[in-house]
Amino acid sequence: MKEFSGKIAVITGGGSGMGRELAVQLAAEGCHVAMCDLNEEAMAETQSLALAEAASSDVRVTTQQCDVGDEASILVFREQVVEAFGDHINLLFNNAGISGGGSFINSSRQDWERCFDICWGGVYHGTRAFLPLLIASDEGHLVNTSSVNGFWASLGPERPHTSYSAAKFAVKGFTEALVNDLRLHAPHVKCSVVMPGHIGTNIVTNSMMYGVDGPDEAMAPFMDEAAAAFRDMAPMTAAEAARVILDGVRDERWRILVGDDAHALDAAVRAEPELAYEGDTFLKVLADAGAAIPDPLVDE
Hints:
alpha/beta; Rossmann fold; seven-stranded parallel beta sheet; two-stranded parallel ribbon; 9 strands
């Protein structure tokens, strides 16, 4: 799929971050966009930005409030897409995600499962719901967002990261398995797994807002500062990440690493897999791989 003009794209988590930038950049190329998110206000802002950048007045951008961790909510979103655009789509970006449930031992089960349900369940339910619409098109591409934590299940030795990592490993394995499945049963549909490093998004804010406990007013000033630091100190912006992803789709790459830190982590884990969870020893492997790993990737 070299051109996006006239195509129809579905994006989960379109209210901010990479989801927003994908919507804006696709609309700028003449692609119709159907997005979902929990935050209706953020989606409306994305919609305005996308329509302002749209290649023509014919480009349509729709929104739907949706909890991707809930299959029933995803199915309502699908029906809205079918009603708005018909019986096929060309692009599906399963992009929505939050963090949480760091420790399998000390975190609450509810917090752990909320993170897993969104980061893995959102991809599973989204693919179940929309893959038939991709198959119904002349050409389609499924894009699932994993993470560097889909091949390195850590934020560093001082902080457990189990739920998010387990979900992102699942997304990576599922998408890789789909490569052959699609070649056998729907060869006109391609798929890609996206593995970003530290990207300047609002995932910290969204995790606070949409985790099990919701926002903590007492901690809000401190968490807002941490969220802003995570976003603003990132070595790659969400807009830059979206461009890398869309270039990967054009090139039909099934494996899309996003950011120099993602490439360095991938090289380090492959070079010394037995050392991947050995703290300072692995940091030396990262340095040897040419990594300039920012603190937020280790300490979030």
